[in-house]
Amino acid sequence: METKYTDKAREVLKQARKTAQTLQLNYVGTEHILISLVKTQQCVASRILQDNGVSEERLMNMIRDLIVQDGAVATLDADGFSPRAQKVLEEAERLSKRFHADRIGTEHILLALIKEGENVALRLISTMGVQIQKVYAETLSAMGEDPSLVKEDLGQQKSGGKKKGSVLEKYSRDLTALAEEGKLDPVIGREAEIRRVVQILSRRTKNNPCLIGEPGVGKTAVVEGLARRIVSGDVPLTVKNKRLLTLDISGMVAGSKYRGEFEERIKKVIQEVRDDQNIILFVDEMHTLIGAGGAEGSI
Questions:
Q1: Phi-psi bin for 277: left (phi > 0), alpha (psi -120 to 50), beta?
Q2: How does pLDDT run across 176-199, given as a tens digit for each residue?
């Protein structure tokens, strides 16, 4: 498979596997590919990343912190790429064809990491204060391409607006937006619960925490506390910059006159969350889902 890569790109992928093994993981993520791009000398990606202040030592320290908070419980087969890393490599192949290259180079992998838009590697360099669009434009220039293509390729990443006709936007509240506007009260005495929720959310699998407790004990407050932490940046990279939405179940049930209408709305919400890939969805009073929409007027 790797015959389609240049020698330097093959070296990057080989080094990425070694980096993952050093960290005692048996999957290769985008973060490992990023470190290898920096380490592999005399290649386009390494030069551009280092010129923009991305260092191997700092990346390794950040990744170790991430893995500690991640729990790192889910893995793939030995030497296997994570789904996100595989997606990046597929994008790199598309870019190499777009720019009429014979093989996939380190420059295409770097462009793909940025263009994919939702991976750990991109969050790492963003956290380091690196100007993503500048890196993208400089890589295009190094390839002999027009750097103004950055607007075409990355312009859509910042759109993030509400989709017209979106069921999720209609029946949810954005807690991170409310926290940003100062409309959520501070949460006192729930630090341990918030940390545990963050830890579970950061897992690769089994990452759906369920808060159980009597009415009024502060389950919703824990989620609001998480929203405030996301806005303040006091969360690991796996959760950073996520949107935390709370779903209005009663609103979704209201007006569901026919059997199956409520279920159809739920399916659309789930699909929208999957498509966005940047949303944490909180379902308050989750037990009300059981039997909801079963018959006209029932809750």
A1: left
A2: 888 887 888 888 889 999 999 999
Which of helix, strand or coil describes residue 27?
Answer: strand
Q: Are 121 and 45 in contact (CB under 8 A)?
A: no
Give the residue among 93, 84, 95, 94 at the shortest CA–CA distance from 34. 84
Sign of CA dihedral 179, 182, 184, 185: positive
Q: How far, CA to CA in Å, does 248 sit from each of 12, 45, 99, 167, 298? A: 46, 46, 46, 11, 16
Helices (H), the chain: 7-22, 30-39, 44-51, 56-70, 83-98, 106-116, 120-127, 132-142, 149-154, 167-170, 175-180, 191-201, 219-232, 249-253, 261-276
pLDDT of residue 143: 93
Amino acid present at 133: Q
- Give me the residues of the chain with pLDDT under 70, please: 1-3, 65-79, 155-165, 255-259, 288, 290-299
Q: 155: which DSSP letter?
A: G
Please name which of 70, 222, 50, 232 lies closest in space to residue 130, comparing C-alpha atoms.
Answer: 50
Domains of the chain: 2-157 (1.10.1780.10), 167-289 (3.40.50.300)
3-state SS of 184-219?
CCCCCCCHHHHHHHHHHHCCCCCCCCCCCCCCCCCH
Per-residue pLDDT at 165:
58
C-alpha span between 99 and 258 (Å, rounded): 52
pLDDT per residue as tens digits for the range 98-141: 999 999 999 999 999 999 887 888 888 887 888 888 999 999 99
Helices 132-142 and 44-51: crossing angle in degrees, nearest 10, is 140
